[in-house]
Amino acid sequence: MSSWNQSNFRVPEFILVGFPGFQDKESKNILLSIFLMIYLLILLGNVLIIVILSLDEGLYIPMYLLILNLAVLDIAISTTTIPKLISALLFNDNIISFAGCFIQMGCWLGILTATSFLLALMAYDRYLAICSPLHYPTIMSNSLAMKQSLFCWLAGLVVGGFLVILALRLPFCGPNKIIHCYCDHSSVLRLACADTVINNYLGLAIALCILILPLLYIFFSYFKIVMAVIKITTSEGRLKAFSTCGTHLLIISVFFLLTIFIALSYRIPGISADSRIMVSLLQSVIPPLANPFIYCFKSKEIRGSLEKTVKRIHKVTQCPK
């Protein structure tokens, strides 16, 4: 094939190799069991949160509206990657169309961006509630929280769409084997039949901006929160506040640190493909799995609403005597 024809030929589909070092049937069955169980737990926990927050009007406050958005994003980011992995492990369905691959890439990048900004927004909400409790009702409202959440979604749409459009400008004439479980941006760019330096550096710069800037703001907000908590007179109140802040910061740090590692992993020598892929998958499942427990089920209001919902369902389904 001539160089002109090669550069103008576009592969119709990609092959997702998955874990290069775990291609035997036993390893695939173990991975299938683990990720299927995790995905079902993610769906159960986050759908339950969405149902509770949607049905209980008493929870229509900015904090829980932001958590509602987070639950939707958690379902979305895990659904973007895990079902295709399960299908590949269960049915050896490791082929994805060209369009499907770029749609998956754009969705993953967009959801990641929206989640990053939403976590910063949630930190801002907690900062106002704890450090400026008297002014909080006048600063934060339900409509403002929804507008800010919409901005996070739009930012994700813009970033994901921009990076996908840049990638689509490249020729993909073969090979078509992606060394990953889903269409990761860097993994796909490595298959382009052209120089990808601009795409790589621009993608890295955008990734670091949407990760490091929100992370710095989150740490700044929680530093202010800690300073305010120290002034609490009762040791019980301080312990409760530190416990809550600590768990929030832990899961936020896991999300951001894993994502930063993914962005830099191709530029760090000595990291195996299996390690890089596993970290990518953990980034898609650990925060969505933990967030319902960290942000919701530890809340007295959420637990109370859940109990009321269960009792209401029990009354409806109870057979008349």
TrEMBL record:
A single cellular component GO annotation: plasma membrane
PROSITE patterns found in the cross-reference section: G_PROTEIN_RECEP_F1_1, G_PROTEIN_RECEP_F1_2
Assigned keywords, A-Z: Cell membrane, Disulfide bond, G-protein coupled receptor, Glycoprotein, Membrane, Olfaction, Receptor, Sensory transduction, Transducer, Transmembrane, Transmembrane helix
Gene3D superfamilies: Rhodopsin 7-helix transmembrane proteins
Record keyword Nucleotide-binding present: no
Domain annotation G-protein coupled receptors family 1 profile: ranges: 45-295
Subcellular location: Cell membrane
Membrane topology (UniProt): Multi-pass membrane protein
Molecular function terms, GO-annotated: G protein-coupled receptor activity; olfactory receptor activity
Membrane-crossing residue ranges in chain numbering: 30-53, 59-77, 150-168, 201-220, 241-265
Family: Belongs to the G-protein coupled receptor 1 family.
Record's protein name: Olfactory receptor
Species, as recorded: Erpetoichthys calabaricus
Gene encoding the protein: LOC127527680
